[in-house]
Amino acid sequence: MTNKEYNEYIKNMAPKSPLAGDLIKAFVVGGLICCLGEGLRMGYEDFAGLAKEDAATAVSMTLIFLSALFTGLNVYDKLARFAGAGTLVPITGFANSVVSPALEFKTEGFILGTAAKMFTIAGPVITFGITASVVYGLILCVLQ
Description:
Elements: H1 3-13, H2 19-46, H3 52-72, H4 75-83, H5 91-104, H6 110-117, H7 122-143
Helix pairs in contact: 2-3, 3-5, 5-6
């Protein structure tokens, strides 16, 4: 079987993804996560009396905690299967990408399992994010 024949075979056998439905689900779930964050921010400002910056920090911590909790309870993974990228984009997706490998490798022990594998998925994101911010900062410094 040639590469062309194989690719055609795979194309015919793979299930068709309903693109419009997937986009709508991702948009709605991602939007709801962001609305939850905004609601928490307003609550922290209005009811807890936090300043805007402190409320934003509290929201980030709350969303990270909830994402880690729901990942541990296997709720976040089910939501991610339903909503796709809608759960990956907000800060909750990042927390999920740290907690999931840690849970998966916990049987290998605390040091060689949980601690060593914790940043398997999130590590490259952190590395390239920091590198990009340094490069952009240097470009901005040179241009100004």
